[in-house]
Amino acid sequence: MSQTGPNSASGRIKVATKDTDSETGTLDITFATGAQLSVALEELSEEIVRELALHGLSQKVGDSYASVKGDASAAFDAAKRVIEQLKSGEWKVARASGEGKSRVSELAAAIARIKGVDVAKAAAAVAQASEDTLKLWRGNAKVKAAIADIRAEKAAARAAKAGDDELELDL
């Protein structure tokens, strides 16, 4: 008989949680059934560790441009920044003032709408959430719909402000 875990923030059934320990070089997985698995890098061959490293590098750099929506120039810039950051020995870089704020504030605004709470309270939860949790929240259908509504409202406001004079079409 199979067992399932609780629903995650995205509405999917969460079957496992993962925890990595950089000091010991281990990955621990705890399944919803209570079963656990653990693997240490030292247990794997050099060839496998190299393949894992290349896979992780590809994923890390790819994640940097996952949200550029078809803008190859922005993708290049994002990938270059992450590669330079990694070469300098930094895994994570603190965001510059204002960088990434709109995505976080959109997420907070969406969560506030859905949960009926103050945006500041939702923003505090977003600020404390792990990257995995943020990814789950952003993947949630209700959150996606709320963000789409927020973006549509902003676009409508910009359109109203712009007026018709900027639209030069021969109709």
Q: Can you characterise this structure?
A:
There is one protein chain. Strand 2 and strand 3 (36-40) form a beta hairpin. The chain has three domains: 1-43, no CATH class; 45-93, no CATH class; 96-160, no CATH class. Residues 95-102 have low confidence and may be disordered. Strands 1-2-3 form a three-stranded antiparallel beta sheet, with no helix packed on it. The radius of gyration is 21 Å and the shape is extended. The protein is mainly alpha-helical and 171 residues long. Helix 1 (46-64) crosses helix 2 and helix 3 packs across helix 6. The protein is built from six helices and three strands, in the order E-E-E-H-H-H-H-H-H.
Number of strands: 3
Largest sheet: 3 strands, antiparallel
Quaternary state of the chains: single chain
Overall geometric form: extended
Mean pLDDT: 83
Gyration radius, in Å: 21 Å
Instruction: List the secondary-structure elements in sequence, H or E.
Output: EEEHHHHHH
The count of domains is 3
Q: Which consecutive residue ranges, at least 5 long each, have pLDDT under 50? A: 95-102
Amino-to-carboxy terminus distance: 66 Å
How much of the sequence is in beta strands? 5-15%
Count every helix, treating DSSP H or I runs of 4 or more residues as helices. Answer: 6
* Helical residue percent band: 40-55%
Coarse structural class: mainly alpha
Strand order of the largest sheet: 1-2-3
Please write out the topology:
Layout: E1 16-21, E2 26-31, E3 36-40, H1 46-64, H2 72-87, H3 101-115, H4 119-128, H5 131-139, H6 141-162
Antiparallel strand pairs: 1-2, 2-3
